[in-house]
Amino acid sequence: MKDKEFLFHTNIPYITVENFPTLGLLTALRFLEWAAENPNGVISLPTGKTPEYFITWVKRILAEWDTPQGAEFREKHGLNLTKKPVLSGLRFVQIDEFYPISPKQHNSFYNYVQKFYVEGFGLDASKGIFINCDEIPLADGLSYEEVFPNYKVDLSLRYREAKTPEEVLQQRSIFLIDEWCSQYEQKIQDMGGIGFFLGGIGPDGHIAFNVRGSDFHSTTRLTATNFETQAASAGDLGGIEVSRFRPVITIGLHTISSKKDAVAIIFAAGEAKAEMVKLALEEKPSNRYPASVLSTMPNARFYLTSGAASTLQDSIHQFYTETPWSQAKSDRAIIGLCKKIDKFGDKLTKEDILQDRYCKMIPNAGLESIQESIDSIEKKIAKGMEPVHGKVIYNTAPHHDDILLGMLPYLQHIASDPSNEMHCSIMTSGFNAVTNHFLILHLSNTLRLIRQGKIQMVDYPNFFTEGYKMKRVKDVYHSLIKIASQQKSEFMRGFAHRLVRDLVEIWNLKSVEELDKKIVELIEFTRHCYDGEKMPTDIQKLKGMIREFEEELVWAHFGMTEERVHHLRLGFYKGDIFTENPNRERDVMPILNELRTIKPDIISLAFDPEGSGPDTHYKVLQAVADAIRMWSKETDTSNLKIWGYRNVWYKFNPSEATHIIPVSLNDMSAFNSAFEHCYLSQVDASFPSYKLDGKFSSLAQSIWVEQLRSIQLLLGKPYFFENPNPILRAAHGLMFLREMTVEEFLANARELEKSMQGF
Q1: 298-310 pLDDT tens trace
Q2: How many domains are there within the chain?
């Protein structure tokens, strides 16, 4: 693969590829090329989800090396090596680790490294150095469970007087950890430094755990993290409640950059990384942008997907210059100009247009161009206010709450029209979003209510044979009526009713005694599980059914009954570090069968077309696309509309949207109420976005408000508050939607079978 010519200067050279799998392939090729030249070299490779395809391709290329297909593949991709690389001589340096954490936990980075690199790549563990928390000595030879019984390490003890015997012990231990880190650093330097470094970039721009503000001369150390990093780590550790207080051991920026002739690669996928990539590459190197330390290394590169590179000057220039001009380009250029010079559209001058790099590219650029963009945006707003009548709408979501966060203000108006038939189908069970703490809390409450005789249904003669299947809709109604009457304890009783039904169904319980015993057993089992541990499938199912009940509560707000809220529980979602690719028989056919039964006029879906953050979105997108592709061969889909929505992970540019929907304070109130009262497992945001230390509903609302501001710059504020239409006068946010034909959607969605091109 060749470097591309770029117009604009960056501090570090970079290469762009089209998608996430290709990013892994490119990185694997460079790694194998380096390993062949440096068979005894020192390597440091990352953990997490981003390396998935890197690991897959390295193993696959080596496994197929001696086959004709392998030779053809290497020739195609320019991997011109005389012999197969042998990785067993490489010396591995673990980049970072949470402290403390048991190396036996599946979510420890030590475990990840041993599984995917030492075992997966056939490395010799005796030649590497690793961060095994069990082997880091502490005061008096004690274990970290004894020194830090709540797993919290107060790093202020480095600088203040210890006030209790426990703090004295902890202080001494912290200094011993610091000494261990210094020795770890010395071992790296004694090895000659890291010769091949591969890392991702965090939401604050961190590499390894060198968060924003880290010194370019930093070395291996025990350190605290910031909120963005804690939020990104919450999925690894089982919730922000854990990651907020868990420090880390990390190699430093100097550790990474000290060997100046080393190959250092940062790879990033997805638009969520675009801002940090831009700052690292285009701003002056600074400790505010930790990855910019690579600017001191001649062989450093950024490998990026087009989404991760989307805000770089080169990518923006490419958008405007490499395809024929369109109204979408004009809209983006003029809205961008309004933001850049902080002027309202009606205040722009012809000189403003002609002095802007991209506005002056508009054919016959002038004041008329501004009005054309105003007209274009006004048409999208009008489209967003058009009534939807007599339609069957099939809303799909990768996870519970995706539809609500993406388009509830629009759907709540559509649902109020009785001529519309609306369905919501959640593709995965979403059990990972339910923490162990939440499960224990509600199991304990349910047990208490049973023992107090407040779950009377368990006393019905046929409850444990047939009764538990009946009146599930009553659980929903009971819960919502108690919300309306502000009786929180009674709402929790309704929640417990559904939990009892789920317990009986999953474990085939036959009596109150068995139910009581099972709940006690589950509480005890879960208490002994570490946060983030992969649970047995039956407990995964229980957690998923909790989320399903929450979803039913949401849509009951709008009169949707249980039979219109579908829970597909697609099988590729198993809670593993690397999620499987969807399988046609297991994962696509259930969607196709729903399409055949429901026969929708409109299908909505999370339109996150680049496979990253969260990857489940992309994989569900491909499964839905495959089902639509198959259905279109069976029936006429020429009039079928696809609505692509985005929520807290991605945003549409106004130029990409076809519908701009006004969002009023009343809409926001209903939205927040539905989220807070129904998504009990999510209200405290155990797995928050790095963009906001709060609920996803608050983040979604802030996005709508931000989108209103961008449109107000073009149209002017009076367009809204002086508008004759009360819907626009009441608008305090805007939601963007993209409508596509089936052909347009399938052209945008990457085919599942082609997501791993190569052999």
Answers
A1: 999 999 988 899 9
A2: 4
